[in-house]
Amino acid sequence: MESEVFTNFEDEQTKNVFGFAEEDIVFSENFDEIGSDRFKEYCIHILCYRGKGKFQMSNKTFKIKAGNFIIWTHGKLVSHIHLSNDFQATVLYISNKFLRRNSPNNNYGIKGNLLLLQNPVLNLSERDKAICDNNLRNLKSRFEDKSHHFYQELLGCLVEAFVLDLFDIHVRINEEYTTTDPNAHLLRRFLALVESGEYIENREVAYYASKLFVTPKHLSEICKKVSGQSALFWINRFTITEIARLLKNKELTLTDIAEKMNFSSISYFSRYVQRNLGVSPTEYRQKMNKS
Question: What's the predicted TM-score (pTM) here?
Fold first, then answer.
């Protein structure tokens, strides 16, 4: 089924005031464009109604079943999606720009974001499944009806309420956690730097610490406290995901990939891949070609 895109009024001045642009919200019933350039700046929300499936994210396999809610904050990290023939789900894409403008004013977002990079699958109770289903149906219904005099403000409120419900569900599924606003701000800036592609040229914690005007030790301590993983873990996670993507391109030699990723030598590149993927670049490529 084709994606259904619901947009607001076409008045450009109004768009600038309320921050809602064409295709900030996209509903779909399939996974065809997940990971595409079109949705690289979107957060992807999936409620599974029926069937089962699995996918890989940063070379870890996750399973999907009915009653699961999946949140992919970085679609480019997702690969090897396999779904059963009876799989049925609602897929909601919300642009990161619109989410930032309509997110609740608390610091749980950065904690949740990092936790979702470790495990993006929420196993819902019947109550929480009903809440998510109702929110998605209501969002879609209100998007279709553009006659509301305060349509754009309404969209922002609906998205904020949707996010708050997800925060509540995520907190109850995971352990309670609080962090100070400065910590949340620092982690948000660090993650934005890494995600922007800085990891291609710079993979040292000291580089990011200098950009953020903190010491490497402080950055690592805050990252560990908030996400449960070191700063280097997140740098390597984005790096190895990009390397794995490039290895699938048969037209690129290992030397090409090493140069693209700014490794000083092919031997250093091979050791890096071996350490993070558990196999050599050649072995990984052969494995991917067979699958």
Answer: 0.65
